[in-house]
Amino acid sequence: MTSARTVLVTGGAGGIGRAIATAFSALGDDVVIADLAGVEEAAADLGVRGVTLDITDEPSITAALAEVGEVDVLVNNAGILTVHGALLELPAADLLKILQVNVHGTFLITQHVARRMVARGQGGAIVNLSSIGGRQPTPGMGGYESSKAAVDALTRWAAIELAPHGIRVNAVAPGPVLTPMLALGLPEGSPAREAWVSRIPLRQLAPVDQVAAAAVFLASASATHITGISLPVDGGQLLV
Question: Where's the Ketoreductase domain (predicted)?
């Protein structure tokens, strides 16, 4: 019987991260959710471990990883989606904030965990949360989408350099995901929601459990010959 893996899910207190933590926990893995807030309550609800972590702060990363212990699977879900603006209007400081969290933060936690995986010598898996927006532009969302294009590049960079150590690095790239927050902002039947759905050949927003399933697959033994990809979970949106 395979022993339980330790799976660290950043941004795991809510939304996609919470669904991913739930999916890994259902497999019997030792799941640790990391977030800036709401960690204790979410961890208790899910029956997993929790740790406070700021992925943009190296001392915070070091302290959190000392508490977590060895990590077999890292899921880089933490990021910000709420800062938007057109090219001619987005404040430069807002773009820097997006890049600091989504790109620099993902780089930092990946670097720290990968160093520990390499030193341990038993391989591992890293799954980043990207977005099809890194390949398909939406007006007003270019700052976020640029950060996710960088996450795709970081995924390939890490994959090629960590492959000799038996560490696989992939990404899941959803389209719009039906999280509770999105459902609140885009209620069913609203023109805004219909505008998004109309872009998707399968005519539905991505169920959150489908995104979680993709992350679980990429970290699994069924994907041992897969590294460096960004897997769309988008209902065919990239086709149009």
Answer: 5-175
pLDDT at 29 over 60: yes
Beta-strand runs (E) in the chain: 6-10, 30-35, 49-52, 73-76, 124-129, 167-174, 230-233
Is 15 annotated as catalytic? no
Q: Which residue segments constitute the domains of the chain, with CATH numbers given? A: 6-229 (3.40.50.720)
Phi, psi for 61 (deg, rounded to 5): -65, -45
pLDDT higher than 60, residue 1:
no
Tokens of 45: 């609800």
Say if CB 64 and CB 52 are below 8 A apart.
yes
Rounded to two decimals, the pTM is 0.96
141 by DSSP, 3-state: which? coil
Which one is catalytic: 102, 133, 144, 158?
Answer: 144
From residue 99, alpha-carbon distances to 79, 81, 106, 217, 240 in Å are 9, 11, 10, 27, 28
State the Cα–Cα distance between residues 122 and 31, nearest whole angstrom: 18
pLDDT at 178 over 60: yes
